[in-house]
Design brief:
The structure holds two protein chains of two kinds. Chain A is built from four helices and no strands. The radius of gyration of chain A is 11 Å and the shape is globular. In chain B, helix 3 runs parallel beside helix 4. The longest helix of chain B is centred in the middle third of the chain and has 22 residues. Chain B is globular, with a radius of gyration of 17 Å. Classes of the chains: A mainly alpha, B alpha/beta. The interface between A and B is small, with 6 and 4 residues.
Chain lengths: ~70, ~250
């Protein structure tokens, strides 16, 4: 499950040349941008049926935070 | 080095089994491109393939209206032929229908064939790992009908206008990846398909159509040459435009 999530995250953020770990703060990635944010929101909605408010998303810092959000559903 | 050369470029062409798409394939191959040709009819795709200069071209039989098939086909194309440097979205359908005959089913059919398919193909081609990391060029086929009006062309025009609008914003979105996005708007072109249809074969109707174009009716080569420009490095500073290739239709 974790591995699948990381795969999806790499795809939406278009991360080709580095690893993604659960402890990473995803906003520090070079690939992070306003468009990347929208892509992640769309991925959470499409793949996990999670509609997240911006205020709630702002509280998430790490890849693990994102992943845990998908488990709470 | 010829700035219009396509040598070393892998170009994907949809609608390559006939008409303008076939000519684009022939012209791009003559300029040195390696081609992946998409179309519904394998026999006619093979006819295109047999008309091409150069080596390494491949063809893929596909119904572009099936999203999953587009995804699978693009993955196979990249696995077979390497990353993509250019995409020509030629596949599409045309019609002349009055308002009262444009049913929801027709709208669905035309938007699927002309807009959704091209957009899906562009999305899969731009997916991570598929496009060249040095960027490249995507061309959507609009029409003068995407910018101007004619009786009975509302449905066709809506789909062609949608492509222009979408392409402009895609040009903004994909510029950071050095992927240029433009549309071509042909005027009336004589193709093997339409030369037998009433508006071309009937001499009075043909004259009317010719009179709308300052330089007369176009040939498929005229459009293919414009595609070579938009795919090649000659247009490296050109993105977000709609290029009229219309013999002067739009100037009047």
């Amino acid at each position: 499950m974790e591995k699948e999530f990381i795969g999806k995250l790499k795809e939406v953020l278009e991360i080709e040349d580095h690893e993604v770990n659960m402890s990473d703060e995803f906003r520090t990635y070079d690939e992070w941008s306003s468009l990347a944010y929208l892509s992640v929101i769309a991925m959470l909605d499409e793949d996990y049926e999670i509609q997240m408010e911006e205020a709630d998303f702002k509280k998430l810092r790490t890849v693990a935070d994102l992943y845990n959000a998908t488990l709470e559903k | 080095m010829n700035p219009f050369s396509l040598a070393g470029k892998h170009i994907v062409i949809s609608g390559a089994s006939s008409g303008i798409g076939r000519q684009c394939a022939i012209s791009c191959a003559a300029m040195g491109a390696k081609l992946s040709l998409l179309g519904r009819n394998l026999e006619r795709l093979n006819q295109t393939l047999n008309s091409l200069e150069g080596a390494g071209h491949r063809l893929y039989q596909i119904d572009l209206s099936i999203d999953q098939d587009v995804k699978t086909a693009v993955e196979k194309i990249v696995a077979d032929n390497g990353r993509i440097h250019g995409l020509l979205n030629v596949a599409g359908v045309s019609t002349t229908l009055p308002l009262k005959s444009v049913s929801e089913k027709k709208m669905d059919e035309f938007f699927r064939a002309n807009v959704f398919s091209a957009y899906s193909l562009a999305r899969e081609v731009c997916r991570m790992g598929h496009f060249s990391q040095n960027g490249g060029s995507i061309v959507f086929f609009s029409s003068v009908m995407g910018s101007f009006g004619e009786t009975g062309k509302s449905l066709y025009a809506m789909t062609k206008g949608a492509l222009q609008s979408g392409a402009r914003s895609l040009a903004c979105e994909l510029a950071p990846k050095q992927i240029r996005v433009n549309t071509i708007s042909p005027g009336a072109i004589i193709t093997p398909i339409n030369e037998h249809l009433a508006h071309i074969s009937d001499s009075v109707k043909r004259k009317e159509l010719e009179d709308m174009h300052l330089l007369g009716l176009g040939k498929t080569e005229d459009v293919a040459n414009a595609c070579i420009y938009l795919l090649s490095d000659a247009s490296r500073w050109v993105t977000g435009i709609n290029l009229f290739v219309d013999g002067g239709y739009s100037v009047k």
